[in-house]
Amino acid sequence: MAERTRQRTLITTLTSQERLSDRVAHALRAALISGELRPGEVHSAPGLAARFGVSATPVREAMLELAREGLVEPVRNKGFRITEVSERDLDQYAELRALIEVPTIGAVTASADRRRLEELRPVAEEIVTRAREHDLIGYLDADRRFHLSLLALSGNDRLVETVGDLRKHSRLYGLTALDERGLLVPSAEEHIELLDLMLAGDAAAAEACMARHLGHVRSLWARSRQETGPGRR
Length: 233
What we know:
mainly alpha, Four Helix Bundle (Hemerythrin (Met), subunit A), 75% helix, elongated
């Protein structure tokens, strides 16, 4: 009986710890998106723990999760550095995404079951809702799910994995600035436009919409970085 009680207590503790590290990771992502944590800065787990009012363990776990996402990188004996991405890097990532995603969208439009496409409408609408609610974390999550789910209809798992990695490396900076200028909602609405074209079976128009959307997003982010300055990418 004592052993069972000990096991239940351990499970409860671990579950609680996991939830705490998830909350810390969520808060860290928000700080990265807003520019509160800036590229190139090095932060220690104890320092961030004091900032969040928690122990260092959940912070360290959260930072390791962000490292797997490419948002930070470990620095020996110091902590974690917020990764930097140059304009050249972003251009190359955007070019790769266009080379992969645009023709794939055309192929999916021609071959996918319309019912499976329609199942993605709630996600496309969620992107717009999140943008209107200024929920930046929710916006990015819905955007990721929509794009990767569309690509998954191609049946190529490695393609989806590759684009997922490109998205992590080319994460969007200056989201707060775009939101404040009212540019996020029009970009979000392009997802519904894309889905409608795919449902209509117009592969050429869907490809053109996808190319325009990726180029639009890249230009918006470039403009945002110029306006916010190098310190708040």
